[in-house]
Design a protein that fits this description.
With 189 residues, the protein is of the alpha+beta class. The chain has one domain (2-172). Helix content is 22%, strand content 18%. The chain is built from four helices and seven strands. A five-stranded antiparallel β-sheet has the order 1-2-3-4-5, covered by helices on one side. The N and C termini lie far apart (47 Å). The relative contact order is 0.16. The model is unreliable at 3-9, 18-28, 84-90 and 173-189 (pLDDT under 50).
Length: 189
């Protein structure tokens, strides 16, 4: 069962990255989404994101200070000459973004693991067979918008859904891409 061992190792790496959170929360362990749990119900029930798509993005959950938190892993984009590891088998996230479900005073509470570089969330989907014919990308403002587009079948239109990591705050921080876009995409001015 080499595949099962690799999947378990990936889960362990995600838990280790989650434990690196700097001071904002002590995260003991992040895990796959619990069907009918609070994070699942929010994403599937309220946001109408397909469960299969949540697996493509490898969205996870954890509790922190008694609150449910979504864990959004950011994976590095591999160079054209590197072998692509399909998400959920051997890929390890570069960094994690956390978003608490509960909004205190109507404000979203989010934080990241140490030292995140700006990256587009969802670029790892370019390696999936569903997106092999993608020639365009839709860049969303928030992470939850990308899987919504995927749930509505944007891969059938040849479109890869990605998101900026900090929404409208993206422009307020100096841009430093972690990798060039995959070869099949053309960067438009």
């Amino acid at each position: 069962m080499p595949g099962a061992k690799r999947a378990a190792k990936t889960g362990l790496e995600i838990r280790r990255r989650a434990a690196q959170v700097n001071g904002l929360a002590r995260v003991a362990e992040c895990q796959p989404l619990t069907e009918d749990g609070p994070v699942w119900n929010y994403l599937v029930g309220q946001r109408k994101i397909a469960p299969e798509v949540l697996k493509w993005f490898d969205v996870r959950e954890v509790t922190s200070k008694g609150q449910w938190v979504m864990v959004l892993p950011y994976f590095a984009v591999v160079a054209d000459d590197e072998q692509v590891n399909i998400l959920g088998k051997t890929a390890t996230p570069e960094w994690l973004k956390f978003e608490a479900l509960e909004r205190v005073g109507g404000k979203k509470r989010e934080w990241t693991s140490k030292g995140p570089e700006k990256a587009l969330w969802g670029m790892q989907l370019a390696a999936r067979s569903e997106f092999k014919d993608a020639r365009a990308a839709v860049i969303c403002e928030g992470e939850k918008d990308s899987p919504t587009w995927a749930s509505y079948g944007c891969h059938k239109w040849g479109v890869l859904p990605v998101s900026v990591p900090f929404g409208e705050k993206w422009n307020s921080v100096a841009y430093s891409p972690s990798a060039t876009p995959p070869a099949q995409f053309q960067v438009l001015p």
